[in-house]
Amino acid sequence: MSGKRPILSRCLMALPLLFLLPLVTFFLMHLMPGNYFDQLRMNPQISQATVEQYEKLYHLNEPVLIQYGYFLKQLWRLDLGYSFIYKQPVMDILVSRLWNTVILTGSSFAWAWILAVFFGLLAARYPRSILNRFLEWVAYAALSMPGFFLCLLLLHLAAAWGGLPLGGMRSVAYESFSPSGKVVDILKHLVIPSFVLGIGIFAFLFRLMRAQAQEVFEKDFILYLRAWRIPGYKILFKHVARNAINPLITLIGMQLPALVSGAALVEIFTGWPGLGQVMLQAVRAQDLFLVLGNMVMVSVLLVFGNLLSDMLLVVVDPRIRAGGGGRP
Fold first, then answer.
1. C-alpha to C-alpha distances, 205 to 70, 85, 113, 124, nearest whole angstrom
2. The domain made up of 4-321 is a member of CATH 1.10.3720.10
3. Longest CA pairwise span in the chain (Å)
4. What is the tens place of the pLDDT at every residue in 236-257?
């Protein structure tokens, strides 16, 4: 039971974010000049009575706090409202685009996290090697280069090379491909956006993992293991990795929503049909409920990320299972 207590406490602490982030977004949207219905008023084919009827239907003629109360009431029924620009429920729009964003963010996070742990351990084990110096330069360059510039650069190189698609998620002839051909086609479209989105995460996690591993190598128990002639790869990938990986697991809770937010820009530049383009159109058109729906999804990802990181910490760190407390 001791291992479950930090997880439950973290969930209770994170729950207010489900209401705080949409509330802040709600006020910011109302601070923007005008709204979606101002565009309808400029249309001579739509009468003023029709606009007022829509405002009354969606309670947009009420004070801001009352409007938010109605939104929370709908949210309790898993109803995120109605999108004015797409003319369909917000939940349907988010569900139809969510899987595409999950593919992009999930693949980016997976390869960046795995490679950062692996190469971080090797760089800490061989600090004076050419590999460490090369990875250090890659990490520095990745953290210094803006993501949009890297995206444009890779798109230009892909256009000159001709071996990778320049945008979208599928080719025109996707439906005529075999099952394996469809997978390969999506992977080709995934190369550029996944690399742009994941390289910054890799650089940050690599430097963190290397620093943590170097600190673990200085512990007395490593000298003890070497004295017992434990193979070096076991020391590195079992004992050092297990003691150095905790901070990376802790960051999962913050990286998931940040990854989705960062994916929006990459999706726009590469034409990936995810939530990024939807969010951009919603903000530009001041589609209130669609913007709020996106923020609710980010809040859920933040809570889920914290829950996932705490569960992984309980699995990885025996001190937490033994009642040694959660993460600091």
1. 42, 39, 7, 13
2. yes
3. 86
4. 888 888 888 888 887 776 777 7
